Amino acid sequence: MLHGREAEQALIDRLLQGAREGRSGALVIRGEPGIGKTALLDYAAAQGIPTVRSAGVESEAELPFAALHLLVRPGLELVDTLPGPQRDALRGAFGLTQHNPADRMLIGLAVLSLLAEEAADGPLLCLIDDAHWLDRATAETLLFAARRLDAEGVVILFATRPADDDFPAPGLAELTVTGLRQDAAAALVDSRTAELAPALRYRLLTEAAGNPLALLELPAVLAVEATGTGSASTGPNPLPLTQRLQVAFHGQVSRLPAPTRTLLLAAAAAGTDDLGTVLRAAAALGPQLPDLQPAEDTGLLHSNGRTLVFRHPLLRSAVYQGAPLAQRLAVHTALAEALHDPADADLRAWHLAAAATGPDESTATALEETADRARRRSGFSGAVTAYERAAGLSTDAKARVRRLVLAAETASEAGQLDRARTLAERAAGQNSDPLLDARLDLVRATAEFGAGKPLSAHQLLLSGADLVRDGEPVHAARILAQAVHTAWYLGAPELADVAARLTALALPESDSMTPIARYTVAAIDGRYTVDLRETAAEARRNGADSPRDLVQMCGAGLVVGQDDQVAELAQTLIAECRDQGRIALLPTLLFFRGEAEVFLGRPHEGRIAATEGLRIAEDIGQDHWISQLSSYLAYLAAFEGREQDCRALVQRALAEQFGGAAAPGAPWANSALGLLELGQGKVETALARLELLTAEPARHHVAGMRALPDLIEAAVRLGSPERAGDALERLLAWAAGARQDWICALAHRCQALIDPEAQAEDHFQAALALGGRPFEQARTQLLFGEWLRRNRRKVDARNQLSPALEIFERLDAAPWAERARTELAALGVGTAARPATGVLARLTPQELQIVRLAAQGMSNRDIAAQLFLSPRTVGHHLYKAYPKLGVLSRGELAELPLDAD
């Protein structure tokens, strides 16, 4: 029976009832040690739902996927039912097969799919205790799965310490457990403790502060203190409660026989609950199995003949921390000798390291091998620690530097950028090899860029490229390709410098980087020299790592204006990412695809791509792309006139955690607000906002270039065409270099607004003759129609305004449709606003994605693998979509108009 936890139990009951009804949920339970978190997990486990359970163990925190294996072990026979990439990733994580390092989030998706399979016939409860001690690989995997829960009937409960940095879990619901009320605390004491003297009972209730573990463990300590002499019996103990409990546990341990204490120390240090391992290690030090009995008799631990479990994690800590250093070293040595199975090589290496008192090359080698295995299994955090510790134990200077470089690179790969920078700086101070220096510069540049310092990142990249340009020009080209990205955040001079460096490299014609570098250099100047499609095909023929090597070509293609080819390439690369499980690249590619789609006049497609990209970026913590995608979605909201949504998304994109006004999404945010205010007729504020995009670094960004027509229109409508002069020059230069008809059409439209009145009609007609994307074509017709109406050519004006209105309504561009209606009304043509009634307007972006794939004949399992969901979540969204579409089954979906705008 739990005392005083009615509210907490009710919350857990609601989650479990939801699971019985097919809904999923996750909850993080936070609280101080002993506050009752485990008791709440035990309560949940007693409610009759099939349960799997795991816990973090402090001594296993550097063993990748240790806790995850325990959790999913009951369902491992279902692994073969998973899609191939997920199956391989999960097997590789557990060391069951040789597999290249998988995207960490693909392992999380595999766990989600596996849990969904286990819940196929009924709800499933997953309990994770001591989450603050989970190895990082397990924590990241479980958090990814928990955030993607939807309609699987799975509940995941995490129990952890109170500080957010003990177990960061953004996006999950949290419950903070505090001390029991006075009446509940008293009831617990009275139910479990022999009658106490009133003074001791009062002191217990006061000092325990409602902590259930303290209420149960401190009475004996207080009784001893009360019979002693000195200040201990006259006032509260000054130690913090957690330390007080450890002291209490240590006092219980210290009264046990010496052999029993040695056995307990071996169990506390083991990093495994395997009884056989503990007994083998202890035997080398003297104790035998019978020496375990006193500890069991006092309830400090219990065994089922195969495993050993301490009564409370604090007890394990008290045993280990209370032992003399010499005993701890001896126990670790004995444990290393007891672990002779090859499957225990990693744990053995860590025990050897714990027993080392100075440099030891054989132990360093064993730890490096452990790190290599962890890296292959995608356990990057554990690999970093192993490489770093191996470096510290190295006797050879070159080996020490090499291991520090590996530690730094792996930390960067794991997203631990501060740690990567520190390790790289340590290695650089001991290194004399220019090739290693180039690798370290790349690590430090990644860390600097992640910290919002593009200038220092850029300088490091240039330095690294200089170190290898003569001996390894292809490596230099790869580094400079990253420098192109940092240069976009600095300005035109930096871009020109990188372009010159790329041009100067002696790249072999047969290398994949050669066509990529050639295209990138041309794109920096906005020049159209070769098709993006042809460049990508040549790079692939030359052995490019697709999609990784081709991702940034999508951004370059948008600069040139090859939007249709960008959309095509991005979609191909997105499909490759899905097939290969390279989830981390998807937010970037979905952003590029979203940009291309809206430029091509398909805003609904752009929203689908960006919504998925933002969801993935949030799941995997890519702050850069959270900012970019939020601001892009703000632009779509402005496009449709949804002011509240637009401003909320801009606020999110420019949040302080992303850099505030200097956030990656700032150019698109200003473009969004400029378009919103231009559509509302607030031309003065729109112009001021759009003029922010004329300064570096936004000046040459895609958002900055694409906003030039908006700025020109705002300046002309405000009566200040002189403020548009530079923008028009840039637009004309872009049109000349990019050689795209649609850009030339924009240039003619803007010249019609600025050039003398007598030339306006010729420019408008030229723009319309060149054609263009639907939204821009309609805007040209709108502006031309307004000009014609002002010149009293009513019939001609109506011939332009009516088709413009039709396009605006089809695209849900509400502000522009209203403006066209107003112009038509001035001509005596009444038009009522048309509601959005198409298929695309009825479904959420995710529902539309799922419905389209189902209409192609894909199964729920195949759709789930494509969209990184569980099959049951796919089914849930399909059944929600059917009534919106007026169909009864998936067989009818193929008959619906589900194509793009």
Description:
The chain has 901 residues and is mainly α. Helix content is 64%, strand content 4%. It has 46 helices and seven strands. A hairpin with a 4-residue loop joins strand 6 and strand 7 (308-310). Helix 33 runs antiparallel to helix 34 (683-691). The model is unreliable at 229-234 (pLDDT under 50).
Helix/sheet category:
mainly alpha
Multimeric status of the protein: single chain
Q: How many strands, what sense, and barrel or not for the largest sheet?
A: 5 strands, parallel
Poorly predicted runs: 229-234
Outline, from the CA principal axes? Answer: globular
Number of strands: 7
Strand order, biggest sheet?
2-3-4-1-5
| Intertermini distance | 60 Å
User: What is the rounded Rg?
Assistant: 32 Å
Helix fraction by DSSP (H/I, runs of at least 4):
55-70%
Mean pLDDT: 89
Number of helices: 46
Beta-strand residue percentage: under 5%
Topology readout:
Layout: H1 6-20, E1 25-30, H2 37-45, E2 51-55, H3 66-72, H4 84-93, H5 104-118, E3 124-129, H6 136-147, E4 154-160, E5 173-176, H7 182-192, H8 198-208, H9 212-227, H10 241-254, H11 258-269, H12 275-283, H13 293-297, E6 301-303, E7 308-310, H14 313-322, H15 325-338, H16 345-355, H17 361-376, H18 380-393, H19 397-413, H20 417-428, H21 434-450, H22 454-468, H23 473-487, H24 492-504, H25 513-524, H26 532-541, H27 551-560, H28 563-580, H29 586-599, H30 603-620, H31 623-640, H32 643-653, H33 666-679, H34 683-691, H35 702-706, H36 708-718, H37 725-738, H38 741-754, H39 757-770, H40 774-790, H41 794-810, H42 814-826, H43 839-842, H44 845-855, H45 860-867, H46 871-885
Parallel strand pairs: 1-4, 1-5, 2-3, 3-4
Antiparallel strand pairs: 6-7
